[in-house]
Amino acid sequence: MRDVVFSCDDRGAKFLRVTVWSLLDRYRGAEPVRVNVLEGFGGHSEESKRMLSEVVSRFPGASVRYIDAEPAVAPYSDLIMNRDGSRWNIFTWTPIFVPALLPDVSGNVAHFDIDMLFNDDVSKILDVDLGDDLIAAVAEYHRGGGQVDDCVWGSGILPPEAERYFNTGTIVFNMEACRAERTWEKLLEWYRAHFDIADRIEQDAWNALYWRRTRLLPPRWNFHDRLVKSFAKWDVGDKYWLGNPPRECLEAALNPAILHFWGPKKPWNTCHRPYRRLYHEAMRAVGQTPPREPLLAPFYDLASRRNLRRIRERHDAWKV
């Protein structure tokens, strides 16, 4: 049994079904997948649970279970709930409790955000040998990025010797190692002491404490589609593009394994994001109606094709 985890309440159930369908549709691992949904604080309706179960039942051997995260979060409610002006909800925090909430699971377990679309087999990262590392994730920034330096390194989140800042939308846990070190307690202790500078809360805490013990995954495993435009323009002579080797970035743009639609423009709403139609196909597969196409879709699609053509030319001409 291989375990993957998501976090949301009933408001995210519709998007969760799309993401889970895409993961299971692409999965080719030898062991069946169990989908764990961390819930609480109102939970999921019986109808939402029935609809997700129907999606999962299409895939032989796959299963789903719901886990109440509220008891784990409650002791820290003074710290991570009811913060004035916070743009983050409680399910931003629940992933840090994965090692504690799945005590019956060993080995590697992956947690994913629900605004994702899977385009490759996740067993490829579930099977990564983490050794003594606690987690695996994808680098989002590298040192030397101007404004990024001011926000991350300049604020004191990362020390000067740390080269990269990773994103926790995709995170693979070394379950035994994380439980042994009780990482969730240390992350919350750091956040309590650094609340004033932690803009992206648990992600900042992970980076601050465990940047040395994080195995970096290729960027295709947490790819932000708006980077296609940037990848087409950056100098291939640069050592890193947002924390990753340029060739890996080009490969990610041409063949993303996980599309992460972070930001305010979501593919379940009308938008012009380059890979939105892949998401719309997944919506149809679970019985949902995609949004209407934007009026300027032909213009944006032309620009995306041009950028991908430039990326393909760079990739094919790369000197090994």
Structure explained in plain terms:
With 320 residues, the protein is α/β, with parallel strands linked by helices. The protein has a single domain, classed as Spore Coat Polysaccharide Biosynthesis Protein SpsA, Chain A (Alpha-Beta Complex). Helix content is 38%, strand content 17%. It has helices spanning 13-26, 46-56, 70-73, 77-80, 98-101, 123-126, 147-153, 175-181, 183-193, 201-210, 227-233, 246-254, 276-285, 297-316; strands at 2-7, 33-39, 63-68, 108-112, 116-118, 135-142, 164-174, 214-217, 258-260. The strands form 2 sheets. The chain has a 7-stranded mixed β-sheet with strand order 3-2-1-4-7-6-8, with helices on both faces. Strands 5-9 form a two-stranded antiparallel ribbon. Helix 9 (183-193) packs across helix 10 (201-210). The longest helix is centred in the last third of the chain and has 20 residues, at 297-316. The two termini are 39 Å apart. The mean pLDDT is 91.
Poorly predicted ranges:
none
* Count of DSSP strands: 9
Mean pLDDT: 91
Biggest sheet descriptor: 7 strands, mixed
| Ends distance | 39 Å
What structural class do you assign from the helix and strand content? alpha/beta
CATH architecture classification:
Alpha-Beta Complex
The gross shape turns out to be globular
User: What fold name goes in the CATH topology slot?
Assistant: Spore Coat Polysaccharide Biosynthesis Protein SpsA, Chain A
Tell me the count of domains: 1
| Discrete helix count | 14
Radius of gyration using CA atoms only: 19 Å
Into which percent range does the helicity of residues fall? 25-40%
Topology pattern, helix = H, strand = E:
EHEHEHHHEEHEHEHHHEHHEHH
